[in-house]
Amino acid sequence: MAASSDHPSESAASQGISRSLARYVVATRFDELPAAVRREAQRSLLNWMGVAVGGSRHRTIEIALAAIKPFVGAPQATIFGRAERLDIMHAALINGISSHVFDFDDTDLTTAVHPSAPVLPVLLALAEQRGMSGRDFVTAMVLGFEVQCRIARAVQPQLGAVGWHPTGAVGVFGAAIATAKVLGLDEARLIHTIGLAATQPVGVREMFGSMTKSFHPGRAAQNGLLAAVLAERGYTSSLAGIEAKRGWANVVSSRHNLEVITDGLGQSYEILRNTYKPFACGLVVHPVIDGCIELRNAHNLEVELIEKVDLDVNPQVLELTAKKKPVTGLEGKFSVYCVAALAIVAGRAGEAEFADTMVRNPVIVELRDRVTATADPRVGKDQARVRIQLKDGRVLEHFVEHAVGSLQKPMSDAALEGKFLDLAEGIMPAAQARRLIELCKVVDTLEDVGEIGRAGAVS
């Protein structure tokens, strides 16, 4: 299958970004991955598994499963935290939705991409359907992260400014690359995989605060899987799906720097910048939550003592989380006013704090309406200034330099395990949850990663 014969007019472009990526993916081996990269893959898997199990009983999942039930194929893969087994295409969709529905999954701070949500549902489904060693799993996972985050860096922040949800629009590349690596596709077929992924971006930011936001990574996983299996059979695409004049980058973004996609490939790794959330909402409001909890705990604050709360935040906070009067938990995650009130009242912001009943709690609503937020471009993305004026005239202030969960203040292994156990409580027995944790921690040593899927099913 000669590449030049498929699209002779693109012979020059075929020597560009898509080909460079394909060549790198084909050549990369597990033994070349630094120990720190392998360790972060374990941590990323552990975090993803916790949020996937935790999200598995959400109403969003119940609706999605009921909708696809007439169309599912052979029972090939686990839906984590549930008894159902689906064909790998639908398993990738549902597990992708489940892992993002709480907005509690990992995040690349540079691009706002949630890298695990499109990649891991595909790899874990394939591991059950066809078998896969831990070494192959980790290699494909790292490459999926690498490609999607590099592509995202090339087009952000303009991609998001146009209105795309980065995880859906870019995650398809991560899922496609990870699948292609597992399938052992050669360079030519990998280029077509990239082209097929490029024609399937999904997700607009208008959907934030609704069930559909979590659909984006699930669909990106499914689309990426489809891209690779089509290319495996010889299905062709443009040879420059990303970089061509009418290719993905020019369509989804008003400005880009494609050089960052390939600069330093194999020398630096995107997964080392992955971060994990201590709070079950978008990262942009984590500094606010961090600051509110800090002041609450330091001064034993009670709501009745508070006159008002003033926040100075990065402009992106008000761009993404300016909902004044949320009425559901999902909407509450996109209200900086609500999250500040929740943090002060509850002293934490796990998934339980974003229940519909909490968001509508009269005490929280009353305090929420006394919160103001001001955009300040001098405030960094992981920073916030919180000022709480008390009724006795005192003003309490705290500036968050780096929020908990940032690269500067990362979650520890113990904190990640605690997060997993909290999310799994009530869904699976504690012993089963701990078994899953241990499997994630040694994933690169497993002979059969399908063991993780089997351990994650709940009867």
Which structural class should the secondary elements be placed in? alpha+beta
Multimerization status: single chain
Q: Provide the CATH superfamily of the largest domain.
A: 2-methylcitrate dehydratase PrpD
The SSE order reads HHHHEEHEHHHHHHHHEHEHHHHHEEEHHH
Low-confidence stretches: 1-15
Mean pLDDT: 95
Shape: globular
Task: Please compute the radius of gyration using only Cα atoms.
Answer: 22 Å
What's the story with the biggest beta sheet? Answer: 4 strands, mixed
- Per CATH, which architecture of the largest domain? Orthogonal Bundle
The CATH topology label of the largest domain is 2-methylcitrate dehydratase PrpD
How does this structure look, described?
The strands form three sheets. The chain has a four-stranded mixed β-sheet with strand order 6-5-7-8. It has a two-stranded antiparallel ribbon with strand order 1-2. With 459 residues, the chain is α+β, with helices and mostly antiparallel strands. The radius of gyration is 22 Å and the shape is globular. Strand 1 (77-78) and strand 2 form a beta hairpin. The model is unreliable at 1-15 (pLDDT under 50). The longest helix has 22 residues, at 134-155. The protein is 52% helix and 7% strand. It has 22 helices and eight strands. It has helices at residues 3-6, 17-27, 35-55, 59-68, 88-100, 116-130, 134-155, 158-162, 166-183, 187-198, 212-232, 248-252, 259-262, 286-299, 315-320, 329-332, 336-346, 356-359, 362-368, 413-424, 430-441, 450-455, and strands at 77-78, 85-86, 107-108, 274-275, 306-313, 371-375, 384-390, 395-400. Helix 3 runs parallel beside helix 20, helix 3 runs antiparallel to helix 21 (430-441) and helix 17 packs across helix 19 (362-368). 55% of the residues are buried. It folds into two domains: 3-276 and 436-455, 2-methylcitrate dehydratase PrpD; 283-400, 2-methylcitrate dehydratase PrpD (60s Ribosomal Protein L30, Chain: A, 2-Layer Sandwich).
